[in-house]
Design a protein that fits this description.
With 137 residues, this protein is mainly beta. The chain contains 1 helix and 8 strands; from the N terminus they run αββββββββ. It has one domain: Beta Barrel (Lipocalin), CATH 2.40.128. The chain has an 8-stranded antiparallel β-barrel with strand order 1-2-3-4-5-6-7-8.
């Protein structure tokens, strides 16, 4: 009997940790994220119909990217347009960011590993859904 209980415990533990996050809820909407090392750094983003628009309050610029979903929890952002930056970003048009959603809370936020196509280790960011954002508030 004890062995049966141990087997079931092991089975349910493996099942619980092997489940993929529910990423469908985060394919479209309005979100925000912060850089905890920079108090004034906030990015507001809106994702709809394969296009993501980001407003960076620290720099004051807007980035428009094409969103290509590779799987339910993986997507690629391809830079298409930069506006309002105090320096030229034209060399980055066409570059991409590979994003993999690691976990979600199921409702409001998700943790994503974002890595550029350049040689960098990437970083993990928590992105949170917001009700409505205005690009320059």
């Amino acid at each position: 009997m004890r062995n049966i209980v141990l087997v079931f415990s092991l089975f349910f533990s493996i099942l619980a940790f092997s489940q993929k996050p529910n990423c469908k809820k985060f394919k479209e909407g309005e979100f925000t994220y912060f850089d905890p090392t920079m108090p004034d750094y906030e990015v507001k983003l809106s994702r709809k119909g394969g296009v993501q628009t980001e407003y960076n309050s620290f720099i004051g610029g807007t980035i428009t990217s094409k969103v290509v979903w590779k799987s339910e929890c993986e997507y690629e952002l391809i830079y298409e347009k930069f506006e309002g930056f105090p320096f030229s970003m034209d060399k980055d048009i066409g570059r991409s960011i590979q994003c993999r959603i690691l976990e979600t809370d199921g409702k409001k936020s998700y943790k994503v590993h974002a890595k550029s196509d350049a040689k960098d280790p990437g970083r993990i960011i928590v992105i949170t859904r917001v009700e409505t954002i205005s690009p320059k508030s």
